[in-house]
Specification:
By secondary structure, the chain is mostly helical. It has two domains: about 1-45, no CATH class; about 50-280, MetI-like (MetI-like fold, Orthogonal Bundle), CATH 1.10.3720.10. Helices cover about 75% and strands about 0% of the residues. The chain has helices at about 5, 15-40, 50-65, 65-95, 100-115, 120-130, 130-155, 160-170, 175-205, 215-225, 230-255, 270-280. It is globular and about 75 Å long. The relative contact order is 0.12.
Length: about 280
Amino acid sequence: MSIHQLFEIRREVSRRTRILLAIASWTLVVLVWFLLTDWDLLPPFSLPKPAGVVQAFVRLWTEYDLLGNVFKSWWRIAQAFFWSALVAIPLGLLMGSFRWLHSMVNPVAEPMRSMPITAFLPAFIALFGMEEGMKVAFLWFGMFFYLLALVVEEADRVDNALLETAQTLGAKRRDLLWLMFRASFPAIFGSFRILYDIGWTYVILAEMVNARKGVGYMVEAARKVLDFDRVYAGIIAIGFAAFLFRWLLTVLERQLFPWRKPAGQAYVPAAAPAAAKAGTHAR
């Protein structure tokens, strides 16, 4: 790829080029990290040496049950995610279908997305105590309002022509609601990756309160004894875990909804499969 091509607006790059650029960017990050610590440009304890972090990562694996802590955090996120989806998806579809319901719920839901969730932590401790239920409820609260807004937005994007066609073919109200769900769900599923990222962000805060296991507890325990090699190793472990689960969701999305693959491959609008099936049932 020439220099001129590099600066063309929205020009796609090959998979090989993307991999090389990713390797180059991470190499640069590690190099800067090495130089900062090797030349003592930062105060002591502020940034450990890369070699020490690598050794601490090995200790997390062998001595501090890294896999067990990652799984515990994932299980908390999964529970909150399940309850968020169970409530937000049907409620969001109804809000996208009935304007009066949207006008009633949205004045409460919209401000909640703008408020910092950290401010609610003392309230959740008072309501649920400091055990497991508080952590799951806190994560649910942090994820629910974001998912609700995404579901409402995707429900609003369902083409009216699709609904009118289904009505012409004899679809009832419950059929229309099911059609809206089928038409919007592929895009809603795509947003699950963002929701999991939010969960991994908030779980660290939740696990700093009276936790006995989890990645947040693991990092906080290391900080209390000033073991910053282990703190940074824990941060890297969290990044790996979050990336892994995000990648698994991406793979699952491609398997479930192949027509939503990236540009360069055949793309079918998300509503098309649902419309075809609705028409078949209506006949």
